[in-house]
Amino acid sequence: MSAPVIAIDGPSASGKGTVAQRVAERLGFHYLESGALYRLVALASLREGIAAEDETHLAALAAGLDATFVDGRKLISGQDVTDALTDEACANRASVVAQRPAVRAALLARQRGFRKAPGLVADGRDMGTIVFPDAALKVFLTARVAVRAQRRYNQLKQKGIDANIATLSRDLDERDRRDAARAVAPLAPAPDALQLDSSDLSIGEVVALILAWYRDRTQRGSV
Ligand code: DC
Q1: Rounded CA separation 215/123 (Å)
Q2: What is the span of the domain harbouring residue 191?
Q3: Which stretch of DSSP H or E encloses residue 117?
Q4: What span, in angstroms and rounded, lies between the C-alpha atoms of 35 and 38?
Q5: Which of 14, 21, 37, 38 to mutate to test the pocket of ligand 1 (most atoms within 8 A of CB)?
Q6: Helix, strand, coil content of the chain in percent (nearest 5)
Q7: Order of strands across the sheet with 194-197?
Q8: Percent of the residues in the chain that have a pLDDT greater than 90, as a whole number
């Protein structure tokens, strides 16, 4: 039997990453931040001067990417690029390259490779719909755009990066529209996903809810 998966999807800065990581820690599960793979392809394409429209080269880049994840750090060919990945320019490019079907196809097997015992928590846009359609629990995590822009602003400030809330809010909105409008694997809740608006909840409350939902499924024997 395959290891159980908890899929947490949602728009940019909805808190998926932090929540997914904590749920994984609590359960002793592995963790996949799928957005980091798209960001890695985006960063490598910017560095290698590959155009955002050049699907063939982008897909080759995605297929051959020497990416590793070590203790929350992300490496390309052994070089730590974690900080460069949090850049808004990188996030915007990631949303553009993620529209390309060949790029998504090239990353599919790599993402499924993270599924190992005792289980996996995966966050992204299409974890519940495309990558792990048989996930034991699917959560679609949202938050109002103003709340998400504020959270991203705090995150960047904490890292000493200068940011502007109005610009962040506009960029988030633009990325969400592009992610939701694309033809392949758009940002959308799976029909069997539980929707959770985190706007007025703390991280701890969101984590506790998801753990309770998961416990409920395991107790009912559906995992
Ligand atoms: O989760 P994130 O903000 O790091 O993701 C960056 C971009 O990558 C996002 O705008 C869309 C794309 N992405 C995707 O298309 N599918 C995923 N499963 C994860 C991210």
Answers
A1: 19
A2: 5-219
A3: none
A4: 5
A5: 38
A6: 50, 15, 35
A7: 30-33, 120-124, 5-9, 137-142, 194-197
A8: 88
Query: CA distances (Å), 55 to each of 93, 94, 137, in order?
Result: 13, 13, 33
pLDDT, residue 71, reads 87
**Mean pLDDT within 32-41:** 97
pLDDT of residue 26: 98
- The structure's pTM equals 0.94
Model pLDDT, residue 156: 86
Per-residue confidence at 176, pLDDT binned at 50, 70, 90? Answer: very high
Residue nearest to atom 20 of ligand 1 (CA): 35
Residue 50 pLDDT class (50, 70, 90 cuts): very high
CA-126 nearest atom, ligand 1: 18
Task: Give distance in angstroms: CA of 115 to centre of ligand 1.
Answer: 19
The structural domain count of the chain equals 1
CATH number at residue 47: 3.40.50.300
pLDDT-derived band at 114, boundaries 50, 70, 90: very high
Query: Which atom of ligand 1 lies nearest, measured to the CA of 178?
Result: 10
The residue to mutate among 125, 132, 173, 184, having the most atoms of ligand 1 within 8 angstroms of its beta carbon, is 125
The span from the CA of 160 to the CA of 149, in Å, is: 16
